[in-house]
Design a protein that fits this description.
Elements: H1 3-14, H2 41-50, H3 55-81, E1 85-87, H4 96-109, E2 112-114, H5 125-138
Parallel strand pairs: 1-2
Helix pairs in contact: 1-3, 2-3
């Protein structure tokens, strides 16, 4: 696991006392939309640090806010579509807290949850895309990018 991700997870776990309200408001209150992003949470983290909040509390509240959104969106998608089978993957599934929370959600909502059995199979999607690109390039398949790219959103 990446050292920064491990540090956030540990800081979040060690700082929990259950009595303080979250530093961050719940993300996306739209009750119908299934599209979501974590836009705004980085700015909220920066502001919390500038306001003198302890890094452990920022980590805990960031993780809880992000994971609460994932849980809410999985629930919403299942309720709106009637789907009862969910496959979760990607690098974030190496996080034990998220695995446990999704496991509890699946029991509560009677959803079949499939996640990789080994955290070693929870790789970053960027690595998968780079690997696919490499093999396409090796096979001689090349496309010109037909749109502008930017590192800013």
């Amino acid at each position: 696991m990446h050292a920064a991700k491990r540090s956030i997870r540990l800081a979040a776990a060690l700082s929990f006392n259950g009595t303080e309200p979250s530093l961050f408001a719940p993300l996306l209150r739209d009750e119908k939309n299934l599209a979501f992003s974590f836009s705004g949470i980085k700015t909220a983290v920066i502001r919390a640090k500038q306001n003198g909040h302890q890094p452990e509390r920022i980590c805990r509240d960031f993780q809880n806010t992000a994971f609460e959104l994932v849980e809410r969106m999985v629930t919403r998608a299942c309720e709106q579509t009637g789907i009862k089978n969910v496959i979760a993957s990607g690098g974030v599934l190496a996080n034990s807290t998220l695995r446990n929370r999704l496991g509890e959600l699946s029991k509560k909502k009677k959803i079949t949850l499939r996640i990789p059995g080994s955290k070693m199979l929870c790789t970053d999607n960027g690595a998968m895309v780079a690997s696919a690109g490499y093999f396409l390039w090796k096979a001689g398949k090349k496309d010109v990018v037909g749109f502008a790219v930017s590192d800013r959103r």
